[in-house]
Amino acid sequence: MRARDFGLVCGTLPTGPLNAITDVAGVTVGHRTRMEGDVRTGFTAVLPHGDDLFREKLPAAVEVINGFGKSAGLIQVEELGQLETPILLGNTLSVGTGFEALVRRALAANPDIGRETGTVNPVVMECNDGWLSDIRALSLTVEDAYAALDAAAGGAVTEGAVGAGTGMSAFGFKGGIGTASRLLVLDGRNYTLGVLVLANFGRAGDLVLPDGRRPEVPKLRRQDFGQPDAPERGSVIIVLATDIPLESRQLKRIARRCGAGLAKLGAFWGNGSGDIALAFSTASRIRHHEAADLVPRVVLNENRIDLPFRAAADATQEAVLNALLAAPRMLGRDGHMRPSLADVLGEPGQ
Questions:
Q1: What's residue 320's pLDDT?
Q2: Whether CATH 3.40.225.10 fits 14-224+231-288+298-340
Q3: One Pfam family, short name please (predicted)?
């Protein structure tokens, strides 16, 4: 189930055919889910295009909304404005595993890395699934990361408790993977902006729906939710893809507006929350061995950037709701539990 099944609509812009990040041509998503014993975890992979990203890089940018988190590769993305590997999402203690997987894949495809040319910058981001999953088990392997990468496909994206979202929580409910997209018209041509979120943030009781309702989290056990004034210690990772021609500076400005979508939901980016948005454009490629001194670029007129600003905020808001509504109630390690928002809202259409 998704937000629109419950009549929850974010903004006025139209969605893409799938209302997913995969509405952006060439973008694919894959999951590897691990659920056994006390483990509720996994990897999610986002592939911006089907070619070798090291050879055919994309303009990219990162916006650190609140930096309480672990990651790999973001410093170089910030400095160079380029993305040169797929994006892996996992849990906090799997960043090194994802790093190794992306490096090994890049080395296998590019024998000159570390020899005739430079090294590679793998991008891995995370949230902490330790409430529902035994994060200390270090259960995710390089093979799990490969499985997520190999499973990447276009079409509808599986949402909720899947891949990296398997053990995540948001606003006291079961969280996880969610996605949404928006269509924009620029110079008479259709463009797409899509978002995928790993939602693991927000205090119980703070969630605000687009219609103004504040759904109450069923407190079946006191220890499942803590005190009302408990600090915000969650995280959210946002991956934004678009086919609008943009430079990295513009992508960073658009990524920043994803935070507006989080704020509409009731988030305030607490001290212990790691909230990061990474954006890329598929409209042009940056060749690794570019021979020209000067290269042409077509980019968005800055006076038209409000439209993708709005699209980023609305798609982020809806992607989080889709994650919450797709995820079923889950019992995790040590009897910890997260209820489903869909169960609280009742049957779709009510």
A1: 98
A2: no
A3: Peptidase_S58
- d(CA 177, CA 179) in angstroms, rounded, equals 7
User: Exposure string (b/e) for 152-171, b if CB count within 10 Å is 16 or more?
Assistant: bebeebbbbbbbbbbbbbbb
Cβ partners under 8 Å of residue 81, min gap 6: 59, 60, 61, 247, 248, 249, 251
**Mean pLDDT split into 10-residue runs, the chain, 350 residues:** 96 98 98 98 98 98 95 98 98 98 98 97 98 97 98 98 98 97 97 98 95 87 55 88 98 98 94 94 96 95 98 98 98 95 83
Alpha carbon distance 38, 31 (integer Å): 19
Encoded tokens for 96:
């090194």
CA distances from 201 to 20, 26, 181, 220, 340 (A): 21, 29, 21, 20, 15
Active site residue 206: no
> pLDDT by residue (tens digit) across 139-162?
999 999 999 999 999 999 999 999
Q: What are phi and psi of 26, to 5 degrees?
A: 95, -20
Q: Is 273 a catalytic residue?
A: yes
Q: At 319, is the secondary structure helix, strand, or coil?
A: helix
Mapping DSSP to helix (H, G, I), strand (E, B) and coil, where does residue 107 land?
helix
| Torsions phi, psi for 51 (to 5 deg) | -95, -175
Q: 249: which 2 tokens?
A: 């500076």
Cβ atoms within 10 A of the Cβ of 278, count?
27
Which residue in the list 235, 248, 281, 340 is annotated as catalytic? 235
Determine if the pTM surpasses 0.90. yes
Catalytic hit among 275, 281, 314, 340? 275
- The four Cα atoms 52, 60, 277, 28 give a dihedral, to 10 degrees, of -30
229 is catalytic: no
Which residues are 33's β-sheet partners? 42
